Amino acid sequence: MDTTKVIQANELKIKKSLSGIVCKLIENLNNMKKNMGTIDRVIRILLAVAIVALYYTNQISRAVATIGLVFASIFIVTSFMSFCPLYLPFGISTRKKEKKEELIST
Predict the structure, then answer these.
(1) Environment class of residue 90 by beta-carbon count within 10 Å: exposed (0-12), middle (13-18) or buried (19+)?
(2) Cβ proximity of 79 and 44 under 8 Å
(3) How many Å apart are CA 45 and CA 52, to the nearest integer?
(4) Pairwise CA distance, residues 85 & 33, whole Å
(5) 83 and 34 in contact (C-beta within 8 Å)?
(6) pLDDT digit string (tens) for 27-49?
(7) What pTM was computed for the model?
(8) Are 54 and 60 in contact (CB under 8 A)?
(9) Residue ranges per structural domain of the chain
(10) Strand ranges, E, within 1-106
(11) Are 48 and 78 in contact (CB under 8 A)?
(12) 51 burial class (0-12, 13-18, 19+ CB within 10 angstroms)?
């Protein structure tokens, strides 16, 4: 078999598997239900800002800074998505329930 044909076949397999992975990720993102309320989101953003401020004022350094900045980035991402994956297995939601308006026919 020709080497270029083998390479092309492998590239096609990789593209198909990557497109399948991307499709699954998009599907999972669409199925995520928001489970964070406004207060929860604001607290996370304020904590992230505080961690970053501590880092830039050299109040924390090295391992503590690295761990803190990782948490700060997670707080920011989850706040903007309004979704915390850790809440999911425990069924926690800090989001207010939306009231459905019922139409009463007269």
Answers:
(1) exposed
(2) yes
(3) 11
(4) 10
(5) yes
(6) 666 677 899 999 999 999 999 99
(7) 0.65
(8) yes
(9) 1-31, 34-92
(10) none
(11) no
(12) buried
